[in-house]
Amino acid sequence: MTSTRRGGSPACREPWYTPAVVSLALFLRSLQIAWALGTIPLRYLARQLTTESPPSIETRERWWGELLASALESLGATFVKFGQILGSRPDLLPPGILAAMARLQDDVQPLPYAVIDRVLCDAWGEVRDDLEVMREPMAAASVAQVHEGRLPSGEKIAIKVQRPEARAQIERDLVLMRLGARLLDLVPSLHLLSLPGAMERFGAALHDQLDFRKEAANNRRLAQNFRREKKVRVPALHDALCTGEVLTMELARGVKATAPEAVGASLDDEARRLARAELAARGGRAILKMVFEDGFVHADLHPGNILLADDGTMTFLDLGMVAEIAPDLMRPWVDTFSALAERNGARAAELFYTFAPYAEVEDYAAYERDVSSYLERLYGAKLAEVEISVVVSGMMNVLRRHRVQVDPVFTVVNVALLVAEGLGKQLDPHVDLVLLAVPYLLAAQLSAPPGRAPNREIPRI
Question: In angstroms, rounded to a whole number, what is the distance separating the alpha carbons of residues 143 and 411?
């Protein structure tokens, strides 16, 4: 791997476009989007025609998910990120589609190093001369790519550099996506998705991701929240080398949680078992602390953004997207989680319905019966046998069937809990996130401020 200390390239000039060029670009892009998404039904039909036996419901859902994921990947960064967020909404999409959407990746060809070096020269000025930067990136995505570097002291660093064209591409796609959301919202069966509002929130989240100063602030806040936890951390920033387009931090080491079986590979069997069990419990407690104690949750929490070390240290990466639970929403969230844990169907149904951003329940009595019936199936299970992933996915199916939407912040929280449980089970099959959650839930019940007024009352039955 080669490195360089200086780019020596002139500063990038801002591109200049006439309104006619912009209009033409939007028109051509809209055709590309229409083709990618509009051909999905035809490709689905082709699969049906080439299948000997009628496909099951699960297979049909998987096909739709695979075709949608493929189309979104072909459309680039903005659509991939939208698909990743949509894929975290079990209240909106069935399990088969969600499983297929989980494969969405944001991997692209890296930019030539000369382009990256110009960004670094513009961001750092003369300081660039003193820093060594590896020419080959460690990772490349559509918004940024990451390079390893070295300070004059010899310390290794990770440098996240925004791609110069990222902002213009995202702004262009957001214009078209907002227009499409308004048109689709006119379809009654799609109104539950609240697409215009969802698109505004999505656009705001993408804009936040384009300003690395906000990611740096999120990094500092999470580090502050875990300041007493020596083995839960985020990479330390080098503030003097951080700008809106460049984020510079220590080079964190460890095994990505995408390969948890590699944790403790150099240890003997007993030491490896203990190290993995310690990490499983620590990860569960860390995410429970984010949810119930801090109300500040990593919103892009997947195994690729977690590093695990043999000494039990867990490092969270990529804090470009976070979710904050408003103080007046903490009480409804805690009450909802408590109702699920206690298997109180009537109370859970009431809380989901009254605090839903949107609900169109035709028969509330049937809705309440379905919620209660689902939770009753869990009555015979021991607490240690109850998995949050099973409870959440089953409950989301009931809510989706009765057209009850869940607050987007709650879905981020649910995804975080699912990641904690899934990773924990891989590290230690005996870890029990429900038991780990009990002290956090009790503390939140005592400390949560009064909740906001519900959005609606339950109908008289």
Answer: 24
C-alpha 454/C-alpha 15 separation (Å) is: 49
115 in Cβ contact with 10 (< 8 Å):
no
Distance between CA atoms of 104 and 107, rounded to whole angstroms? 9
The two three-digit tokens of residue 174, written as one number: 């957001």
CA distance 207 to 268: 47
Residue bearing the bigger pLDDT, 421 or 163:
163
For 344, the token pair is: 């109180």
Catalytic, 407? Answer: no
Q: What is the pLDDT of residues 228-280, one digit of tens each?
A: 998 999 999 999 999 999 999 999 988 888 787 788 777 788 888 888 888 88
| DSSP string across 6-37 | ---PPPPPPP---HHHHHHHHHHHHHHHHHHH
Phi (first) and psi of residue 153, to 5 degrees: -75, -10
User: Whose CA is closest to 4, among 147, 182, 176, 173?
Assistant: 147
Answer whether 115's CB lies under 8 Å from 164's CB. Answer: yes
Q: What are 120-140's pLDDT values in tens digits? A: 999 999 888 889 999 999 988
300, 310, 370, 428: the active-site residue: 300
Q: Which residues contact 337 (CB under 8 A, 6 or more apart)?
A: 437, 441
Cβ partners under 8 Å of residue 318, min gap 6: 215, 300, 305
Total-model pTM: 0.80
